[in-house]
């Protein structure tokens, strides 16, 4: 496989997965939130499809090392997303996101501990506010335990 075709194949795969994700999101019921449960998955699928098209439109490069790194980063991010989804069902939204958020930022090149620790705290809080209070979408509780079960007051 030549360096010119590899990013195009990756882009095509991402675009196809995005379209599939959009189709799957449309099967989600309307729900009780202001926007509904399908809003975020539908947006994520659309962004993935558009991102795949953007990758396909990029000019070909002969730098195979850079191309391989980008492909590995994209594959790692997809695997992290899959692991986060499994962790949601086991340990709940807050713990799964607390672990996944700094790992995602590390995949994008952040190496300093203090920003990663800050992301580990701020991302779950921001997503919690967005999903629970803006969208009215409540993810399932973790089967093993869930921080949302703990009452501080």
TrEMBL record:
<protein>
    <submittedName>
        <fullName>Tripartite tricarboxylate transporter TctB family protein</fullName>
    </submittedName>
</protein>
<feature type="transmembrane region" description="Helical">
    <location>
        <begin position="77"/>
        <end position="104"/>
    </location>
</feature>
<dbReference type="Pfam" id="PF07331">
    <property type="entry name" value="TctB"/>
</dbReference>
<keyword id="KW-0812">Transmembrane</keyword>
<feature type="domain" description="DUF1468">
    <location>
        <begin position="11"/>
        <end position="138"/>
    </location>
</feature>
<keyword id="KW-0472">Membrane</keyword>
<feature type="transmembrane region" description="Helical">
    <location>
        <begin position="40"/>
        <end position="57"/>
    </location>
</feature>
<keyword id="KW-1133">Transmembrane helix</keyword>
<dbReference type="InterPro" id="IPR009936">
    <property type="entry name" value="DUF1468"/>
</dbReference>
<feature type="transmembrane region" description="Helical">
    <location>
        <begin position="116"/>
        <end position="138"/>
    </location>
</feature>
């Amino acid at each position: 496989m030549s360096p010119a075709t590899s990013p195009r194949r990756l882009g095509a795969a991402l675009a196809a997965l995005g379209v599939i994700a959009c189709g799957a999101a449309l099967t989600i019921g309307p729900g009780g939130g202001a926007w509904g449960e399908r809003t975020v998955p539908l947006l994520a699928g659309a962004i993935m499809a558009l991102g795949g098209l953007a990758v396909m439109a990029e000019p070909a490069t002969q730098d195979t090392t850079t191309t391989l790194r980008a492909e590995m980063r994209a594959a790692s991010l997809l695997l992290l997303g899959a692991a986060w989804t499994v962790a949601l069902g086991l340990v709940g939204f807050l713990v799964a996101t607390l672990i996944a958020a700094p790992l995602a930022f590390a995949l994008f090149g952040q190496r300093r501990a203090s920003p990663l620790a800050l992301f580990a705290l701020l991302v779950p809080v921001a997503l919690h506010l967005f999903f629970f209070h803006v969208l009215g979408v409540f993810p399932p509780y973790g089967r093993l335990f869930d921080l949302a079960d703990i009452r501080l007051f």
